[in-house]
Amino acid sequence: MAKGTMRYWAAAKAAAGTHEEPYDAGTLAEAVAAAVAKEGRGGEFQRVVGRSSFLVDGEPVGSRAHESVLLPDGGVVEVLPPFAGG
């Protein structure tokens, strides 16, 4: 298991109720599942995260399966919901 930081932006930040929080997970899928399962988080957070893009230490995850994305110890996961405007 790796320990690091998940950072939330825009709608993800609002739905999470925080800008960032620690993760303790081996893969991106595990980190996202743990974040969704946190007490007090409802369906809106799950919906936003389900539509979000992710960066791991600045590198886009893209279409890779989240189960295959290994998280580094001390890493940063950015959760980027779809943005409107230009």
Automatic annotation (TrEMBL):
<dbReference type="Pfam" id="PF02597">
    <property type="entry name" value="ThiS"/>
</dbReference>
<dbReference type="InterPro" id="IPR012675">
    <property type="entry name" value="Beta-grasp_dom_sf"/>
</dbReference>
<protein>
    <submittedName>
        <fullName>MoaD/ThiS family protein</fullName>
    </submittedName>
</protein>
<dbReference type="InterPro" id="IPR003749">
    <property type="entry name" value="ThiS/MoaD-like"/>
</dbReference>
<dbReference type="InterPro" id="IPR016155">
    <property type="entry name" value="Mopterin_synth/thiamin_S_b"/>
</dbReference>
